[in-house]
Amino acid sequence: MFNEEGVSNAIKWMKDDYRARKFSIRRNFLIANEFKSRYRFSKDIVLNILLPLINADLLKVTSRGLPVPPIYQLLVALRFYSSGSFQVITGDLIKVSQPTVSRIVKRVSYLFCLKMQRFVKFPSNLETIKEQFYSIGSFPGIIGAIDGTHIPIQNPGGSYAEVFRNRKKYFSINVQIVCGPDLQIYDIVADRPGSVHDNRIFQASTLKRKMEQGIIDGILLGDSGYGCQKYLLTPVLQPETVSEENYNKAHIKTRNTVERTIGVWKRIFPCLSKKLATNLTTTCHVIVATSVLYNICRSHGIVEEIDDIGYTTTTRQNIRNTQAYNREGLLFRRLFITRHF
């Protein structure tokens, strides 16, 4: 025989179980718009494009106990990227623990990182890219716009933690982005601490070596934090002629594509704007994985435009210190302005 308290608890349990089952049914039958708003992709793209990219590797991981099916692992990772919520909240969606979510995010992010060379790269036809950039601001020869952006992280701890504290006094990863005229990401470097300067990241990058060797033929546009080179043009600090003013106007208008790209990328994947609490290796993998997914978004017309994006500014002292060691680049820029503006 049940006492009154036992009956009351049993009824409460039945109601809670009913609500949980109703929520589960509702979750499994999300309409197209609801699914897309939560996972950033349509059901067709998730099943036919994203899942085949990582399905085989996810099946190889483990067969012990009751492993989470690959489709659930993909959805958990996408939900984490698109919400930036705590992992325990993401886990509640399919009734898995926070440690399981952590392992899933780590695993799926790594697998998408392996696809970077396929999805994050310069197009083979750079002449078309130059024409598209020229149509934006009448700036000839441009194949990409470059900039750095800080991805906030939690204090990594250890004796080198302060290396990750940036000039704005919070811990971050300084990520270098190169984008095209259609706001696709062409190149990314996502493993530098927040204290490292943008120009230093570029100087140590593979992209710089490829441009010096002529493997990638064209010009990048960067802000005045970068050193002016033959293959990377920066604004004129103090324009004195009409040609230099026209050059600066065209430079700002054309380079704005990278500001928009970073803004849209972070809007689609809010986890990049919130303080990532994963370990450093997983954090870098998450950043690169979202860049792969972002390019897939753009190639399938899944975009979110941002209206209010400002321009990156740099102090005059920093500009002088950076450009003082690039006299050859400054001379090339002067001749470039005389020829084209």
Automatic annotation (TrEMBL):
GO molecular function per UniProt: hydrolase activity; metal ion binding; nuclease activity
Keywords: Hydrolase, Metal-binding, Nuclease, Nucleus
Coiled-coil zones: none
Name of the protein in its database record: DDE Tnp4 domain-containing protein
Similarity field: Belongs to the HARBI1 family.
All residue ranges annotated as the DDE Tnp4 domain in the record: 146-295
Cofactor(s), names only, from the UniProt record: a divalent metal cation
Subcellular locations according to the entry: Nucleus
Protein species of origin: Parnassius mnemosyne (clouded apollo)
GO cellular component entries: nucleus
Highest taxon of source: Eukaryota
PANTHER family: DDE TNP4 DOMAIN-CONTAINING PROTEIN-RELATED, PTHR22930
